[in-house]
Specification:
heterotrimer; A alpha+beta; B alpha+beta; C alpha+beta; A: alpha+beta; Muramoyl-pentapeptide Carboxypeptidase, domain 2; four-stranded antiparallel β-sheet; C: Beta-Lactamase; five-stranded antiparallel β-sheet; about 30% helix; about 20% strand; globular
């Protein structure tokens, strides 16, 4: 059986079930609004969005692997490319690019020109510290953690704050080798 | 699979593992622990033949082969214990990403391995033949000390011949 | 087969030539060695209690993987036997056979291990395991009430699985 190469993001995107983009955008907006009401602090909302994203990411990774035919994620560089080219296309319908690699290949940026989450959004003055799309950073972090890559993710550029694109910095902290999970004396 | 110009990679190990009467047959819950316990009990009964001639890269040294042998031995035992029906004699064929490992076990407990390209046929026959060679040129040799590493030139020669013949047979097909 | 709203399951159902009860049992483990699922269809012989059995199975796979990584004849530089490896690193294996059964093994980069034990003469089941992985994604991972890392209690998944395994030849 010859090894099957990864499927393209477009091919998968064409085949998955879709919902109305506006319904999705409005639902996400409503969630962020509700969190702001419940938690009051913008910082807390950022944290909560990241946590929600993380919970999504640790599930989404299996869907991604099952549909994309990706069988190994050992190399961080390759993994980042796959996330940007296949992952974002598959789940958000947009293509991201990977840039700004540092010298030792452990830190890069994922740049989104287009982001369906922020259609219709204008940040009010009271929410200037809010990372509206912080759920995305959580998703990426959770998904990478499931393939044994501990990462730290931060926003470098945000269109809602007047930048020209969305830029997520992904920093690889460490790759965790697989250990024998059971203690000796059981 | 490539035919005609096919390169046959065959490495043969014959392992002679002493039967031990202690608890190696009853692995504890943790497979790994057993492995290393067994590893300590056995010592050098490894025979390696012509590994370098058959295109295996990264030849294992004696210590490595020993560890692999003891690990295999306990995997064999565990695979019997996990069988859904009784009468299991252990692993006969292991299909890895880059090679197939065929294992033949004589009734006396000596194990013979062939490591070959995925999908190579007729390895059971080759192993049986090697077993015959072993009985002829090793066991019948009065100067061979039981359970010691095999250093019998006649065996080496015949083994090399058997593998080459196998290679020719495969190429001719 | 009707999935939730017709989501595509890939690869599509592998064709089976003849049906029969070839499945003995199946295990699903996660990376931490938790047995997420154990299904048994035909297993007259039990030598251990269930917990020990699961641990032994997981240990066997773990050790066989380090064995194949060490024995790989195509890679010159290999780590020592038993040294922890990154997921996806090193040569792994996809099946082994004894005179009484055949075990097919698949591992996803996220650490999900699926093990299917069948009749020794069943053919190549790698596509079938991929299909089962897809079932797992549809029925388990996407179930919002399922907590990742806990044993699977999902009737719909079990019935679909039973039905599918019965069709494997």
């Amino acid at each position: 059986m010859p090894p099957v190469g990864p499927r393209s993001g477009d091919a998968i995107f064409a085949n998955v079930e879709r919902v109305n983009a506006e319904l999705f955008t409005l639902t996400y907006g409503a969630i962020v609004r509700q969190l702001l009401t419940d938690l009051e602090e913008v910082e807390e909302v950022n944290k909560q969005l990241d946590q929600m994203g993380y919970n999504i990411g640790i599930r989404l990774i299996d869907e991604f692997l099952a549909k994309s035919n990706v069988s190994r994620c050992v190399d961080f560089k390759e993994t980042a490319e796959v996330i940007a080219k296949i992952g974002f296309k598959m789940f958000l319908g947009v293509t991201a690019s990977v840039t700004n690699w540092d010298a030792d290949g452990t830190c890069c940026s994922i740049v989104l020109e287009d982001n369906p989450l922020v259609d219709f959004v204008e940040l009010p003055d009271t929410c200037q510290g809010l990372y509206y799309c912080n759920i995305l950073s959580g998703v990426v972090r959770g998904a990478l953690e499931m393939v044994s890559m501990k990462t730290e993710i931060s926003w470098i550029r945000d269109m809602l704050r007047g930048d020209d694109a969305f830029e997520l910095q992904v920093k690889l902290l460490k790759q965790v080798p697989e250990e024998y999970p059971y203690k000796d004396d059981e | 699979m490539r035919f005609g110009s096919r390169r046959i990679r065959t490495c043969v190990f014959a392992l002679n593992i002493r039967q031990v009467s202690n608890d190696s047959r009853k692995p504890t819950g943790s497979g790994f622990r057993t492995v290393f316990r067994v590893g300590l009990i056995y010592s050098g009964f490894i025979f390696e033949s012509g590994l370098k001639d058959y295109g295996s890269s990264g030849r294992m040294d004696t210590n490595d082969s020993l560890r692999v042998a003891s690990l295999w031995h306990s995997m064999h035992a565990i695979s019997q214990q996990l069988s859904p029906i009784s009468g299991c004699f252990g692993i006969e064929l292991l299909q890895a990403d880059t090679f197939d490992l065929h294992c033949f076990q004589s009734l006396t407990g000596t194990k013979f391995f062939v490591v070959c390209e995925p999908g190579t046929q007729h390895m059971e026959g080759l192993l049986k033949h090697i077993y015959e060679l072993y009985t002829d040129y090793v066991l019948k040799n009065p100067f061979y000390e039981m359970e010691m590493p095999i250093r019998c030139e006649l065996f080496d020669i015949n083994l090399t011949q058997a593998i080459q013949k196998d290679r020719v047979a495969l190429l001719a097909r | 087969m009707q999935f939730f709203g017709g989501t595509e399951i890939s690869p599509s159902l592998p064709a089976s030539t003849a049906s029969g009860n070839n499945g003995h049992m199946m295990y699903v483990f996660n990376r931490n060695g938790v047995c997420l699922l154990y299904r048994e269809w035909n297993r007259p012989l039990h030598t251990l209690n269930q917990q020990q059995d699961h641990k032994l199975m997981f240990g066997l796979l773990f050790s066989l993987k380090s064995l194949t990584a060490k024995m790989d004849p195509t890679t010159p530089d290999k780590a020592n036997l038993g040294v922890p490896q990154l997921p996806g690193q090193g040569c792994s294996f996809h099946s082994f056979r004894t005179n009484t059964y055949k075990l097919t093994f698949m591992e996803s980069p996220s650490g999900i291990k699926i093990i299917l034990v069948t009749h020794p003469r069943t053919g190549d089941l790698r596509e079938s395991l991929k299909y089962i992985y897809n079932l797992y994604v549809e029925y388990v991972v996407k179930n919002p009430l399922y907590t990742p890392g806990t044993p699977i209690r999902c009737e719909l998944f079990n019935t679909t699985l039973d039905q599918y395994v019965r069709s494997i030849s």
